[in-house]
Design goal:
This protein is α+β, with helices and mostly antiparallel strands. The protein has 13 helices and seven strands.
């Protein structure tokens, strides 16, 4: 089959801005995007720069954006990307500086992985032979241990696009691998650290990391698990935890979300500087009728007719949680 690769090129030595170059080649129907790129490099343009190694979707080296989404080039078939004969658009990963063409500088990626202290920290006396872990505990960790650190989730993370201090989904998924390991004795300390600015509460749950992960690690799900663990451990004195608890309390009290109290409950009623910063937004909401005045006064906020059923759901969940513990 004939395919056109539209590759984003960048050479820092020339000083020219990034630009797309088109390459039209013939490849077999079973060819992957990586096969096609290597064909271009070997027979058409030897200056094309890219990374690859195992060609078996294990090493993660060939992660790049293909048709606007982070993918492993060795796992992505050309025929799937160009079903109607349209060009296959290939770009370097996002949220990382480009060194040349499809090669990015992953130092920031590895720095964030190092930030979460990716090693076990057992406490107490050492066992005579080895640390024993239950089958159930290891099965819980098995999915996150499939991570090949390809960077696809980091490439398409929407939070990193606006806040580079976010630890990012790959590192936080790796963090769960140690937080959830029974052999690690620093769970509380880790959760306290990850609950700080840039950690687990900064994820916006856009689900992009789940969609692009080639190994089904689902980093966002791991982040949500650590949020629940942090709250259970009593780490509630932060905006993220307070927001979650405020949301829950509002629904349990009246059956609906009290948006007027959500912000002060999340930021803290006595956090005057933060509340003043949000005041212009609140005033705009009031002017446009998106913030009911009655919500500012809880006694005036009536519960929905079916509030008993709502509260029963909360009671059943709390009872179930206690039996799980």
């Amino acid at each position: 089959m004939q395919v056109t690769l539209k590759v984003k090129r960048f050479d820092p030595e020339t000083g020219a801005p990034p630009a797309f170059a088109d390459y039209t080649i013939d490849v077999p129907d079973h060819a992957t995007v990586l096969d096609s790129l290597l064909q271009v490099r070997d027979y058409v343009d030897g200056s094309l720069a890219l990374r690859c190694s195992c060609r078996s979707a294990i090493c993660g080296s060939c992660s790049m954006r293909i048709n606007g989404r982070a993918r492993l080039a060795c796992k992505t078939k050309v025929i799937d990307m160009a079903r109607d004969g349209e060009p296959v658009v290939v770009e370097p990963m996002g949220n990382m500086p480009v060194i040349k063409d499809l090669v990015v500088d992953m130092e920031s990626f590895w720095a964030k992985v190092r930030q979460i202290k990716p090693w076990l920290q057992p406490v107490g006396p050492k066992p005579e032979r080895e640390y024993l872990v239950s089958h159930e505990a290891m099965m819980d960790l098995s999915k996150v241990m499939n991570c090949i650190l390809c960077g696809a989730c980091v490439s398409d993370c929407t939070v990193l696009e606006v806040d580079k201090s976010f630890i990012a989904p790959a590192a936080l998924a790796k963090a769960y691998r140690f937080v959830g390991d029974p052999r690690d004795g620093m769970q509380l300390e880790r959760l306290r650290e990850y609950s700080q600015y840039g950690g687990i509460w900064d994820c916006t749950r856009c689900n992009m990391c789940v969609e692009v992960c080639p190994k089904g690690v689902a980093p966002m799900d791991r982040i949500m698990q650590m949020r629940a663990m942090a709250i259970e451990a009593g780490l509630r004195n932060n905006t993220g935890a307070r927001h979650t608890l405020a949301f829950t309390a509002s629904v349990e009290e009246t059956g609906r979300l009290n948006e007027a109290l959500l912000v002060p409950r999340s930021l803290g009623f006595f956090n005057i500087p933060a509340l003043l910063k949000e005041a212009p937004t609140a005033l705009r909401f009031l002017r446009r009728g998106k913030l009911p005045i009655r919500q500012l006064f809880p006694p005036l906020e009536r519960a929905i007719p079916g509030i008993r059923q709502v509260r029963r759901i909360f009671q059943k969940y709390e009872a179930h949680a206690k039996t799980e513990v």
